[in-house]
Write a structure and sequence with these properties.
The chain is α+β, with helices and mostly antiparallel strands. The protein is built from ten helices and seven strands. Strand 1 and strand 2 form a beta hairpin. Bound molecules: iron/sulfur cluster and FE2/S2 (inorganic) cluster. The site of FE2/S2 (inorganic) cluster has 13 residues, from loops.
């Protein structure tokens, strides 16, 4: 495939960015999207031009680093996948593809397609943990009975990889889906109930301080989430917050 890429280029957090056009040729439909970006960068390096900066690490849908807005959608046109799992067979020869960073005030651009998601880390540090010692006591796992329903729901919430697609997609730049997943994975388990009230109050407080918007139930976050985190987690977050506030 021969493609035209329109890519956001921005030298530094304070500089003014702009869309720049590039051509890539002989792209195989079997390549991943990031491999296609690698081809572009090899071309740029060969021409002594600055390669396009983009985040990636695992390249298998686990780390949540590959934050790109592709043709107006977080992680591109496929569903239930991250950008690194997106394949070029989703595109056609001659296509023009627009590639931008995730955009939200709480995710400032560092360079090109790389954004700073320290705000997510700060929310996690405010309460996204349990303080019990879980090291080396494997028998504990079988001592407290947990219903299969709750275990499954907690596990589903725990699959959130902190990619930020929910924020980038939301017209309010709300982080409610992310925070709800991080609260839910503990709220459903007895080990998480001990600090439940402090956790939800502190994480919501930090979320607001970081400048994320509020949720108006449009549901765009759930559609674009690569891990299928459900809106029911936001309902649970609201209940947890109300209980803790009272
Ligand atoms: S809720 Fe989904 S979209 Fe949001 S950070 Fe977690 S995995 Fe990414
Ligand atoms: S590079 Fe790790 S999820 Fe895409």
């Amino acid at each position: 495939m021969d493609l035209t890429l329109k890519i956001w280029r921005q030298k530094s957090p304070d500089s003014k960015g702009k869309m720049v056009d590039y051509k890539v040729t002989d792209i195989s439909e079997h390549m991943s999207f990031l491999e296609m970006m690698d081809v572009l960068n090899e071309q740029l390096v060969a021409k002594n031009e600055e390669p396009v900066a983009f985040d990636h690490d695992c390249r298998e849908g686990i780390c949540g680093m590959c934050s790109m807005y592709i043709n107006g959608e977080a992680h591109g046109p496929d569903r239930g996948i991250t950008t690194c799992q997106l394949h070029m067979r989703m595109f056609n020869d001659g296509d023009t593809i627009t590639i931008e960073p995730f955009r939200a005030n709480a995710f400032p651009v560092v360079k090109d397609l790389v954004v700073d998601r320290t705000s997510f880390e700060k929310i996690q540090q405010a309460g996204g943990f349990i303080s019990v010692n879980t090291m080396g006591r494997t028998t504990d796992a079988n001592n407290i009975l947990i219903s299969k329903h709750d275990a499954d729901e907690a596990m589903d919430a725990a699959t959130c990889i902190g990619c930020g697609a929910c924020v980038a997609t939301c017209k309010n730049s709300s982080a409610m889906l992310f925070v709800s997943a991080k609260v839910s994975q503990f709220a459903l388990l007895p080990q998480g109930r001990v600090e439940a009230a402090d956790r939800v109050l502190n994480m919501i407080k930090q979320m607001d301080e970081e400048g994320f918007g509020n949720c108006t139930n449009t549901g765009a976050c759930e559609v674009e989430c690569p891990k299928g985190i459900s809106l029911t987690n936001i309902a649970r977050l609201n209940r947890e917050y109300l209980k803790a506030s009272l």
